[in-house]
Amino acid sequence: MPYRALLLVTLVPAALLLAAVVRLPWAGDLGMHAAVVERLRADPLHPGHPLVDADVPSPYYSPWMVLLALLAAATGASALAVLHLAALAGLVALGTGVRAFVRTLTGRRAAVPLALLCVLFLYGTRLFAWSGVPGLTSLALTVAYPSTLALGLALHLWALLRRAVGERWGTVRFLGLGLLLAVVLLVHQFTGAVAVLGVVSVLLGARPLPVRAVWLRVGAGVLLAGAALAAWPYYPFTALSGADGLEAIHRPLYQHLVSKFCLVALGLVALGARCRRDRRDPLVLLFALGAAVFAAGGLTGHWSWGRILPAVLLPTQLALAVEAAGRTGRRAGPLLAGATAAALLAGAYVQAGAVAYALPARAARFVRAHVPSIAPWPSFAWAAGRVPAGETVMTDDYHALRMLPAYGPYTVAPAYPDVFLTDERERRAVTRRYYAPSATRAQRLGALREYGARWVLQRDGGPGLSPDDPALRRAARGPGGLMLLEVER
């Protein structure tokens, strides 16, 4: 495929993603990450839980988020403002990471832009967006998440490790790679697991296998990575290995697999060709390891193991790009190039709705009315502007639970499961008790007092205390019949 033509084509999704960096469409976990920055900026040493008023550690407090919080504190910028910078950093890290790793696999210039296109478009006929999976739609919504930066750093780590093994770097450099691995694991633990599988694949796929001295240096890097993880002060990393409560929210990763990833089948053909040439090819090994973990999660009901999915998808996408760029045979070359172009066009058609993230609101609504897409969530600035930072809001609204903490307030119940929050079940039970249609006024007032809720966000005419109750005062009204009520002090 012509190199310049591929570069020009790649500029289109790149422009869309840069627009997403500027606009930062809000859907999913963006509020969680903004809340993390808010808590760290308010108290860098003892931030507490990011969503509820509880003095517990949190795996969201990573080196990257600490750095962003320090930047916010130094500049006076809001949490959401620094997340724009986080999005740009993540996008740059991912793009340069793909380039660095692909260049260790082939010298063909066309492979890099083709790899970027495959990573963005080679999925399926059903829209799929999930943190750590860098499809165009998914990345537009999650570009500011730590998972984007972590995946980019993981790709750089694999590229550097391939050079380190081939050039027999010294111990100091291998120690640096160990620290980089620890950073990836701390920044995003699920992507860290992908990074570990990639490290194993690179080492076992090296030709020739590393000599004893290199293995000793690798061991030193691994020991340093373990020491860095153990020394991280914000949460005990080893406690995550026995975490439960995360399975239900990850079950969708195992649903509709054919429609979400059918276009990846072409990449399997490329992997097969690489496997025939070299059974220890690092992409083949990474795919095999990732597929084994993913399958084990499905067979045992450990749905959270599905977060290893990038270790399954990336090898197929990159293998296809490398093979399509390198094929020169009279039949195989044009055939593979044509099939790759067709698959990419199909993937681009499926994700065409991502163009809405770069358009003004009115044009974006028109696009979404005609093309499948994931719409950004409504703003909660109307409510957040009334609630002081650090005060607690009682709500069971899906979006409010995930967005209000981004502005500084807490909620009674957390939006997501948390392995360190020991009273999570009690908090959810109290919230259900307040909104239960059969609850008495005394029970609802007791629920508000139990966790110090000074504000209530509920739907007009929905369950909860009447807005005219003497214990409440109307503070603001939002879209969709939502009301913010202040509890009389």
Automatic annotation (TrEMBL):
<keyword id="KW-0812">Transmembrane</keyword>
<feature type="transmembrane region" description="Helical">
    <location>
        <begin position="335"/>
        <end position="359"/>
    </location>
</feature>
<feature type="transmembrane region" description="Helical">
    <location>
        <begin position="283"/>
        <end position="305"/>
    </location>
</feature>
<feature type="transmembrane region" description="Helical">
    <location>
        <begin position="214"/>
        <end position="233"/>
    </location>
</feature>
<feature type="transmembrane region" description="Helical">
    <location>
        <begin position="110"/>
        <end position="130"/>
    </location>
</feature>
<feature type="transmembrane region" description="Helical">
    <location>
        <begin position="65"/>
        <end position="98"/>
    </location>
</feature>
<feature type="transmembrane region" description="Helical">
    <location>
        <begin position="136"/>
        <end position="158"/>
    </location>
</feature>
<keyword id="KW-1133">Transmembrane helix</keyword>
<feature type="transmembrane region" description="Helical">
    <location>
        <begin position="170"/>
        <end position="187"/>
    </location>
</feature>
<keyword id="KW-0472">Membrane</keyword>
<protein>
    <recommendedName>
        <fullName>Integral membrane protein</fullName>
    </recommendedName>
</protein>
